[in-house]
Amino acid sequence: MDLTATTTVRKSASQVYAFWRELENLPTFMAHLEQVRATGDRTSHWVASAPFGKDVAWDAEITDEVPGERIGWRSTGDADVPNAGTVSFVPAPDGVSTEVYVALVYDIPGGSLGKAVAKYFGEEPHQQLDDDLRRFKQVLETGEVVRSDGAPWGKRARKEFPQRPAQPLSDAELTKGAEA
Amino acid sequence: MRANTWAGRNKVEVRDVPDPKILNSRDAIVRITSTAICGSDLHLVDGYVPTMQDGDVMGHEFMGEVVEVGSGVTADKLRAGDRVVVPFPIACGACAACAAELYSCCENTNPNAGIAEKMFGHPVAGIFGYSHLTGGFAGGQAQYARVPFADVGPLKIESDLTDEQVLFLSDILPTGYMGAEMCDIRPSDVVAVWGAGPVGQFAMDSARVLGAAKVIAIDKEPYRLRMAEEAGHIPINFDDADVRSKLLELTGGRGPDKCIDAVGLEATHGSAHIAAYDRVKQAVRSETERPHALRQAILSCRSGGVVSVIGVYGGLLDKFPAGAWMNRSLTLRTGQCHVQRYMKPLLERIERGEIDSTRIITHTLPLDEAERGFDLFKNKQDNCEKVVLKP
Lengths: 180, 391
Ligand SMILES: NC(=O)c1ccc[n+]([C@@H]2O[C@H](COP(=O)([O-])OP(=O)(O)OC[C@H]3O[C@@H](n4cnc5c(N)ncnc54)[C@H](O)[C@@H]3O)[C@@H](O)[C@H]2O)c1
Ligand SMILES: [Zn+2]
Ligand SMILES: [Zn+2]
What we know:
The complex is a heterodimer. Chain A is an alpha+beta fold. Chain A has four helices and seven strands; from the N terminus they run E-H-E-E-E-E-E-E-H-H-H. The two termini of chain A are 25 Å apart. Chain B has two domains: 2-170 and 338-390, Quinone Oxidoreductase, Chain A, domain 1, CATH 3.90.180.10; 173-334, 3-Layer(aba) Sandwich (Rossmann fold). Chain B has helices at residues 39-45, 96-99, 113-120, 163-166, 172-181, 198-209, 222-230, 243-250, 272-283, 292-300, 322-327, 339-351, 370-378; strands at 2-6, 12-16, 28-36, 61-69, 83-86, 89-90, 126-127, 144-147, 155-156, 190-194, 214-219, 234-237, 258-261, 306-309, 331-334, 363-366, 387-390. In chain B, helix 5 crosses helix 12. The radius of gyration of chain B is 20 Å and the shape is globular. The structure holds nicotinamide-adenine-dinucleotide and zinc ion (ZN) (2 copies).
């Protein structure tokens, strides 16, 4: 499965690149990621969250990198869902902003895991990535993912539809947090 | 706390709901001292704007006292004790739209941007108490509200102006003003305003402040037209007169140079067969709007003129007079108001006495009587023009 998405962020290419290159930042805006941990200069360990059916973990390495312009990576070893991606950062015509182009490739396996992954991405898989990039832009431009009473749990917003009412959360809801 | 909530189509209900809490670091919690009912709330209650849910707290026109700020709000921006008016569009202040002062199109404040994008092609900003399409934010017809990006939007009131004098800076005064501003008014201009509701009244006053030669008010409610007339504008009652002929008569046959639609998608029409056409279309959902005022504004406007639309539309409309628009070089301008852009300058106009924003208030009720307030306002009972609620 190939996915592409793009957004424009009102920051310089070097700032936007630097934020992405800090791979630990990815789970703050990518809905399916639980954790990414750098294990070396170009290697990292990724954990995807429960919506994937079960926790899925894999190692990845950066295969291509031009600071301020481009990062390419791919999973290594025997990942359950082999995947690869590139992100490029292109100065926008306004002279202030940066266009961000993301391309992801998932090699979806057969069996129950494949089904779970397909179900997770749903009928419009690119939407997941569109929403990820929307949050990426939010975090870079405003500092965090915006929450509302209807969608209080940040990166789970789309999964929450139909939403809880636009009404303040009770203490119990707040303590409990998002359903996994 | 007590809050007025959406309780299904055509029904609001004041209920007990939890107090709001800080959810993002740049939030503030405001204790509301005054809030109002808007024509936009009617579209939500009537069910014309989709994605309302049972229990949604309504209201987007409110002011009050800051009681708490998040860790990301610095004291030079806002602190507990400050008295503020809160603009209805939630804007981040950092995106390209905000940089261009297009606050109601802020790219970052709508957590449901994906859904809004499906409907509108591109997403729009979050708005308080205004459906899940614009974010699912609890509104301000309540005792307290959570205000995101509190370091960007709220206007501090440091003088001793009353709530009534400044409350409408949250929406309808800037909206009416933007409606007039989009007309690029010149001293020779005749400006016609469809709708003598609160927004229309402020569009009329603003057109005069911006130098229009003559301002015409079109509605069918005699008491609203009387209110416009008392403020110095010329009334036309569309129930008694053919609007286009009347406009020609008042402009030496030219038609108004600038036209403002302050009615929106629930316009009523004097002509039964046209009204019936739109009702049927609306009922089967192949048209979501009843755009009588907009059609009439386009047909009436002088060639080369501007039709400025501040009445709200939510979906699709039929029989758009594209021929009149195109062949007569009309300019169509519109938008949810970019309130943040106008708050300070309009506050100064209020302080200088150039605009009396209190003149439209006809009812002040306790919050617990919100349901009655909606009823009075919607059904034009008891000469109701604008309802202010006191939590
Ligand atoms: N653009 C914005 O940011 C913004 C902000 C606030 C309100 N609004 C919109 O402005 C509009 C007016 O708001 P309001 O609070 O004054 O509401 P309102 O309902 O009190 O006023 C509408 C008026 O239009 C009159 N009307 C109905 N059909 C008409 C017709 N065919 N011709 C002339 N007049 C007609 C009604 O009698 C009524 O007096 C609403 O659509 C509201 O949603 C837009
Ligand atoms: Zn309003
Ligand atoms: Zn913004």
